[in-house]
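FOLDING PROBLEM:
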Amino acid sequence: MCVRYTLHKTDAALNAISAALGEPLATPDWAVPRFNATLTTTMPVVARSGGVTGVRPMRWGLLPFGGHGAQPKLIANARAETVASLPAFRKAAATRRCLVPANGFYEWKTSGASKLPFLFTLSGDEPFALAGIWDPPAGDLPETYCLLTTEPNELVATVHNRMPVILTERAMAQWLGDQPLPPEELKRLTAPFEASRMASRRVSRYMSNSRNEGPQCLAPPDEPLPEPELDFG
C-alpha cells in the first residue's frame, strides 16, 4: 500500500508534468506544500475530461463500490494488476486516469516491534507523477482519487511488498486520458519504476502520525524531534 506521500515543491512537479504533456499547467492558489499527504487530504491532481486538461482539487480516497453508508472505509490504492477488471475500478481505469504530482512517498519497514518510516524519491529529488484514477462528485463528496500500486522494485522491496506506480516523462502523456487503454499498454505503463533512478532514506517517526505536517516530516531519524504516538490511520 501507499498511504502517505509528499508534495512540497508543487511548482516543480507541475512544471515537469506540463513539459511532459506539452500543455500549460499553473499551480492553483489553494495548493499548499504538503509533507505528509494522507487519506481525505485534498491535493492537486491533473485530470482530463471532455478533452480539457487541468489541475483539480481532489480528495484522496475513493468510496468503496456501493459503499455510501455511514463512514465507509476509503480506498487509498488500487492494484495495477486488477484495476481494469474489478467493478470498483473498471470504469475509472478506462475513462478517468489521472496524474498525481509528487516529490516522494513513504513506506514503513517493520523492525522488531517498531515501524520505521522511509522516504522514497527519484535521484536528485526529481519531481514525478504517480498514476491515479478518479471518481466524479457523489452527493456531498467532491472529486476523489486513489493511487495505483504495483510490484516493488529492488529498492522498495527492502522495505515493503508494494510500491506506487511512478510515471516517467513519456508515460505521463500515455497514462492521462479518458479513453480505454489496450491491456498490454496498461501492463507496460504500470510496471515497477527502475530502482537505479530512485533513492531512499530513513526519516523521523514524527511523520508516522497522520496529524503531523511540515518540513519535520523529512527530518532524519536522529533529529531531536518529539516521537509522537504512532497513528497509521
User: Anything to note?
Assistant: The helical segments are 10-21, 90-95, 169-175, 183-189. The chain has four helices and 13 strands.
